[in-house]
Amino acid sequence: MKFQTNIDNITETMLNGFFVDWPNPPNPETHLTLLQNSAHIVLAIDDKKNQVVGFITAISDGVLSAYIPLLEVLPTFKNQGIGKQLVEQMLAQLQDIYMIDLCCDDDLVPYYEHFGLFKGNAMLKRNYHMQTGKQS
């Protein structure tokens, strides 16, 4: 397993199987675009299969704030510490940022507390009709 913080040599075909349980998941092309447009990324890559098996993204102003919208590990690679490594590497990238925020379901709060994050309040809006990604 290797980790990288850029999309060098990453293709759409390496991004299959993500967004599990999303009713209208983004396709691999949209996934690659969101990785390109993120301020920070960390990818977990299975060298043997040449497949991305996990990723985390952050958007940021580069000064005071960052938001981590996505962390995913392919189902067959869960419970191997990959998500933990992705979060740790992302938090290291963001160590000079004042506020690092993310939203998660209640069952994931204990997971993120292990990384020093604390529970807060958030206001959310979801445009579910856009769940597959921005239409060009």
Class based on secondary structure composition and strand pairing? alpha+beta
CATH topology: Aminopeptidase
Our estimate of the beta-strand percent is 15-25%
List unreliable stretches of 5+ residues: none
Q: What integer value in Å does the Rg equal?
A: 15 Å
General shape: globular
Strand order of the largest sheet: 1-2-3-4-5
The description of the largest β-sheet is: 5 strands, mixed
CATH superfamily: Gcn5-related N-acetyltransferase (GNAT)
Instruction: Write down how many β-strands occur, each being a DSSP E stretch of 2 or more residues.
Output: 5
Number of domains: 1
Order of helices and strands: EHEEEHEH
- Note the gap between the termini: 34 Å
> Mean pLDDT across all residues, rounded?
94
Annotated CATH architecture: 3-Layer(aba) Sandwich
Number of helices: 3
CATH class division: Alpha Beta
Query: Roughly what percent helix?
Result: 10-25%
